Amino acid sequence: MISVFIKQINKVNQPISIILCQTSHPGNIGASARSMKTMALKQLVLIEPAIFPSNVAVERASGADDVLANAKVYGSLNEGVANCQWLFGTSARSRAFPWPQLTPFEAAAKMLELTATQQSVGILFGNEQSGLSNEQLQQCDFHIAIPANPEYSSLNLGSAVQIICYEIYQAWLKHKQEPTLSEMTVPAIGHKANHDEIAGLLEHFEKVSVEIGFLDPKHPKKLLPRLKRLFAKAQLEKEEVNLLRGFLKLANSKKDTQIS
Asked: Can you list the residues of the chain whose pLDDT is less than 70?
């Protein structure tokens, strides 16, 4: 029944983490913390911040000191998102290699659906000057594009965080006030593999592909990004990842046996 959903809503989506990647100015970290707290989000993750901790961050947080104090700092993107089962990346630019794309409104609804079944969600924001790189975006399951003036679509990092957090909070309020909520049921969603497990599967595919001659490491082209996108579309569960890795292990061992 929807009781799990209601319980999760009452926590205002605590499985949702705001992840800032390679932030150059500490003031933007503080502004993001303030944006989060006004919308009842508390989990802040910092990937390779240029300056942190910082008094400038505390000043810009304007009372959201607890969000800053509890922020988790990591030295690499893989470490910071390892436990995320779902990763949403923000980007204002169109990419040559397309990925599932959502508006902030659509993304917020999707996040509530996922956290209703206690699945962890991370929202990734890039560096102030360059945003997220193509490689970083390819780590994500979904991309979020904030609609803006096409002639000037540049948003301050804190403002971008505020918009996403606002939509999450509005989605929470909508569901909280829904009169027929207690009569609804949550669609069954399997326990999705986290980022670390998907990354391990991708590395396994790469290793076996090289060994059997399917992938030339000197000229990989777009095989690995396409595999990552395929895995994102499939929304692989932990058991499915284990199944695929078991297949790869056995297939590779059979190849070695035949050669010997």
From this structure: 1-14, 93-99, 177-190, 254-260
pLDDT in the model for residue 95: 55
CA distance 249 to 241: 12
Q: Give the Cα separation of 194 and 205 in Å (integer).
A: 17
Separation of alpha carbons 125 and 131, rounded Å: 7
Tell me the angle at which helices 157-176 and 104-115 cross, rounded to the nearest 10 degrees. 60
CA 21 to chain centre: 12
Can you tell me the distance from the alpha carbon of 180 to that of 167, in angstroms, rounded to the nearest whole number?
A: 22
Sheet of strand 101-102, all strands in order from the earlier edge strand to the far edge: 72-74, 43-47, 16-21, 121-125, 86-90, 142-144, 101-102
* Angle CA 170–173–177, to nearest 5: 145
- Distance, CA of 201 to CA of 248 (rounded, Å): 9
Q: What is the pTM of this model?
A: 0.74
Give one word for 133, left, alpha or beta, with left for phi > 0 and alpha for psi -120 to 50.
beta
Q: Give me 148's structure tokens.
A: 């803006």
Which stretch of DSSP H or E encloses residue 232? helix 223-234
Residue 179 burial (10 A CB sphere; 0-12, 13-18, 19+): exposed
C-alpha to C-alpha distances, 238 to 94, 97, 120, 197, 198, nearest whole angstrom: 31, 27, 14, 8, 9
